[in-house]
Amino acid sequence: MIHSQPATDGAAIQLVLPDCGQTPNFQTGSIFFVGNATTIIRYGGFTILTDPNFLHQGEHVHLGYGLRSARRTNPAVELEDLPPIDFVALSHMHEDHFDRVVEQKLDKELPIITTHEAARKLAQKGFRAAYGLQHWEKRTLVKGSAHLQLTAMPGRHGPPFLASLLPCVNGSLLEFQLPDDRPPFRLYISGDTLMHQPLEEIPKRYPDIDLALIHLGGTKILGVLLTMDAEQGIQAIQLIAPRVAIPIHFNDYTIMKSPLSDFVRAAEAARLKTQIQVLEHGDEYTFEVPFYKE
User: Fold this and answer.
1) What is the per-residue pLDDT across 212-261, written as a single tens digit (0 to 9) for each?
2) What is the Cα–Cα distance from 242 to 13, expressed in whole angstroms?
3) Which fold has domain 27-279?
4) pTM of this prediction?
5) How far apart, in Å, are the Cα atoms of 8 and each of 13, 15, 91, 150, 176?
6) How far is CA 184 from the centre of its chain?
7) Which residue ranges make up each domain of the chain?
């Protein structure tokens, strides 16, 4: 059973997850790329699913206002074959991030941390543990001796003149708390956002980001850019300055107009200090946390 504990000292509200009794591994972690914006993050005692999308090649997502897009790829694993998941980090409520298969088959008790708008819609669909956050709002997740603080990061899914027609978007910052008062391991997920002024606040508040998952694709509807293309992706990495960045959300749907190859060329030309780690569907990136040793 999931327990939510209100904060009494201004700290983030705690969400207490079931504890399986395993000792958290703080030395290594992994990112498994399922496809689109769907990943499985394993680190510090947690297993996290992002933006679950398990439709298959040729199937369509409905994006509202009669707009549809066909999937070009298959997910690397099926929803039924996922490992036990502690919670879902959901950027926003679009069907290429939370599809009809997920709506039908995902455990309705599984915690989902997302926008307030998406949390309301999920509750209407029967999901009983959907939690909405505003930008910069926090939620602490506790699983036995493992602690993680999730902060909603700013996101904007398109230009201002389309704001009322598009869903609200959160990025996420996951701060995994390490033993002995060591600095947290910080993992940033951009969500479906464009470059905009509020992003400039992120490195001021949260320097030393270790790993970033950057949503790309250059998604366009009626010629209007709705997610970062290669140029904006480079700008985001230069701004956030993570040690390692993994591009995701780049070739899975027909509305994505900026291929991964454009980003790779732009990254090489930019001579980034950040290490770029490219994953194909089904690839797993394993990382070590160098400042933690047993």
Assistant:
1) 999 999 999 888 999 999 999 999 999 999 999 999 999 999 999 999 99
2) 27
3) Metallo-beta-lactamase; Chain A (3.60.15)
4) 0.94
5) 9, 14, 28, 18, 22
6) 18
7) 27-279
